[in-house]
TrEMBL record:
This is Ferredoxin. It comes from Streptomyces goshikiensis. PROSITE patterns: 4FE4S_FER_2 (PS51379). Residues 1-29 form the 4Fe-4S ferredoxin-type domain. Keywords: 3Fe-4S, Electron transport, Iron, Iron-sulfur, Metal-binding, Transport.
Length: 66
């Protein structure tokens, strides 16, 4: 699984960090970012829920290409 955050769209609502705090955090300005080493998301259902919870759809989750 590959996780992407469109930083140009993110408004810093923080729903991702609340839903999947082991994968998402917020930077000093309050915008979403991935926790170090969590780019693959480990297949967590909470990551998909965090993407759905984003009010501006700034998070995308896709299958990792082999």
């Amino acid at each position: 699984m590959r996780i992407s955050i469109d930083t140009g769209v993110c408004i810093g609502a923080g729903q991702c960090a609340l839903t999947a705090p082991e994968v998402f955090t917020q930077d000093d300005d309050g915008f979403s970012e991935l926790m170090p080493g969590r780019e693959d998301g480990a297949g967590s259902a909470l990551v998909r829920e965090a993407a759905r919870a984003c009010p501006v759809s700034a998070i995308s989750v896709s299958a990792r290409e082999t």
